[in-house]
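Customer escalation, tier 2.

The customer says the design service returned an amino acid string that "doesn't look like it belongs to this structure." They asked us to rerun it and document both sides in this ticket. The original C-alpha cells are below, unchanged.
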C-alpha cells in the first residue's frame, strides 16, 4: 500500500508549529493534542524539521527550564527526513527503523501533504497480516 492511500482517508489538518515559536508553545500543542511530534515549518512554510517529545527532553536536560523560552528552531531535529506519497508503507517503516525515528512528513513536490507515525505503519502491517491469516483460514476451510 502506498503512503498516498494510507493518508487519503484522513480528515482534518496536520498539526504543526513554526520554527520561530517558543518551545513552551510547541510543548503545549503536543500535550493538548496528545501527540508525539510536530512538523516544523519555516518562513516559506516548508518543512524545516521535526519537534518531538525527545527534543523536549534533550533541551530540558541541556538547558533546564530555560529551554521552554527558546525557539523551536534551536531544539528541533533537522534536516527533516521525509517520504513521498508514492513510497510504500513498508518502505516508510524500513526508513523509520533504519534511522531510528518515529514520525515522517509526507512531502509532494516540497509541500507537506501528510504526516505518518510509526504507529500508523505498524497498524497497517498488523491489519495486513490479520487479513492474510483470515484469507488462509477461509481457504483451508473450503479446501
Amino acid at each position: 500500500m502506498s503512503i498516498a492511500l494510507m493518508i487519503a482517508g484522513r480528515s482534518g489538518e496536520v498539526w504543526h508549529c513554526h520554527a520561530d515559536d517558543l518551545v513552551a508553545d510547541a510543548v503545549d500543542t503536543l500535550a493538548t493534542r496528545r501527540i508525539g511530534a510536530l512538523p516544523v515549518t519555516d518562513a516559506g512554510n516548508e518543512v524545516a524539521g521535526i519537534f518531538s517529545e525527545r527534543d523536549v527532553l534533550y533541551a530540558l536536560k541541556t538547558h533546564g527550564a530555560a529551554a521552554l523560552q527558546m525557539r523551536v528552531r534551536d531544539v528541533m531535529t533537522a534536516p527533516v527526513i521525509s517520504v513521498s506519497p508514492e513510497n510504500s508503507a513498508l518502505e516508510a517503516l524500513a526508513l523509520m527503523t533504519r534511522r531510528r525515528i518515529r514520525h515522517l512528513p509526507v512531502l509532494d513536490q516540497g509541500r507537506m501533504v501528510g504526516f505518518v507515525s510509526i504507529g500508523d505503519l505498524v497498524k497497517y502491517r498488523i491489519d495486513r497480516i490479520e487479513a492474510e491469516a483470515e484469507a488462509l483460514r477461509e481457504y483451508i476451510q473450503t479446501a
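Tier 2 assessment: The sequence is consistent with the input. Residues 118-142 form the longest helix (25 residues). The two ends are 29 Å apart (CA to CA). Sent an explanation to the customer and offered a walkthrough call.
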